[in-house]
Design goal:
cytoplasm, alpha/beta, 7 strands, SAM-dependent_MTases_sf, 7 helices, about 220 residues, about 25% strand
């Protein structure tokens, strides 16, 4: 169900209030433009599952913004977002934190075209795209990253193995998970006893309208 711009703005603001996030009018404007372009492109290519716009705002945009509380000193951070898809969470975070340096990993070319379109449309700078698939144990470039995230790309154990060579010493990895986070943490502990990562935090959130459970699980490379 499509909603008008004013209703979308009110819904965004209510959701941010529910998550105790303070976004400027400029950021809200950028996110509304992002939503508009996403719904337009989604009619032609399958970027996300079809859903009412309010559900898209909550389950994609507000869900991505949960990470803001973990991005202290954004001007000093270079974030790697693996499996970015339609830009969640990476481009949403970039719109909210312009100082954040961002690299997106997305191998599917139609999605890469959309990501480039959003970067141009929102006039975002210091954003790079790796349009290839990461492979476990393979390092595609010299850079390592102080913070890496992904949104429901794979299990925790698989993801930590995938990005091990891309994480800086002492770097953080934040896995965005649903209600089965503890189960995946247990699996990781059982199957990866020699992992170079240590679990430092697991924080549960609820989405402000549906009450859906989200967990941000943070690891540190030691």
């Amino acid at each position: 169900m499509k909603i008008d711009n004013n209703e979308a703005r009110d819904f965004f603001c209510q959701g941010c209030d529910g998550l105790q996030l303070a976004l400027s009018e400029e950021v809200i404007d950028k996110l509304l433009l992002y939503l508009q372009e996403l719904t337009k492109w989604n009619r032609k290519i399958n970027l996300i599952g079809k859903a009412p716009e309010k559900e898209i705002i909550e389950k994609h945009f507000l869900d991505s913004l949960l990470l803001l509380s973990h991005l202290d000193n954004a001007e000093d951070l270079h974030l790697l977002d693996v499996g970015s898809g339609a830009g969640f969470p990476g481009l949403v975070l970039k719109a909210a934190c312009p100082a954040l340096q961002l690299t997106l990993v997305e191998p599917r070319q139609k999605r890469v075209s959309f990501l480039r379109h959003i970067i141009r449309t929102l006039q975002l700078d210091t954003v790079d795209i790796i349009d290839a698939r990461l492979e476990p144990g393979e390092k595609q470039q010299e850079n390592t990253f102080p913070i890496i995230t992904s949104r429901a790309l794979s299990t925790i154990a698989e993801f930590l193995e995938l990005i091990s060579h891309h994480s800086s010493p002492g770097g953080l990895v934040i896995c965005m998970k649903g209600p089965k986070a503890e189960e995946e943490i247990g699996q990781w502990k059982k199957t990866s006893p020699q992992s170079p990562f240590t679990l430092i935090d697991s924080t549960e959130y609820r989405l402000p309208f549906s009450g859906g459970i989200r967990n941000l699980v943070t690891f540190k490379k030691v």
